[in-house]
Amino acid sequence: MIYKIRVILDTKDDVFRDIEVRDKQTLFTLYKGIMSAFSLQGEELASFYDSDQNWNQGREIPLEDMDNEDSDQTMADFYIHESFPQIGSRMIFVYDYMEMWTFFVELMEIEEKKAVLNYPLTVYRYGIVPLKAPKKSMDVINLEDDEDLMADDDAAFDDLDLDSDIEIDDDI
């Protein structure tokens, strides 16, 4: 069986690739396919994460076992058919923990056809991959301007009597 997987770069512009892999290949094979499809260097650490339909990040499946006990499983331990049990199954892929290239990965189609080529195979490309990882927008809270944080303008941290409930024994 051949699995068609759509890999979408988390960026404001539409950038995605459709990659075909065989069901008996592993997440490591899909990792190699993503690296090739998006022209990434392949020299940084990466992980897949289980995901639900709302793209909430779950269990991590790393590229390499970083634990000294060799007890954790890696991408090479998970078959495609296990990781994507049905059409619509999703994962999140993160490459390069410093730059945080983030991709949404979803199983689009399962075909019963004979594998005739070397897989993974990029079968569709859309959009231009940026030269640098897209920056994540983060909401910054300005503590001085936020009225909700300071309900009583007259109260200040210095004004609090933190020791008022403590009984002090003068006999010590």
Automatic annotation (TrEMBL):
Pfam families: PRiA4_ORF3. It comes from the Bacteria. Residues 2-123 form the Plasmid pRiA4b Orf3-like domain. This is PRiA4b ORF-3-like protein.
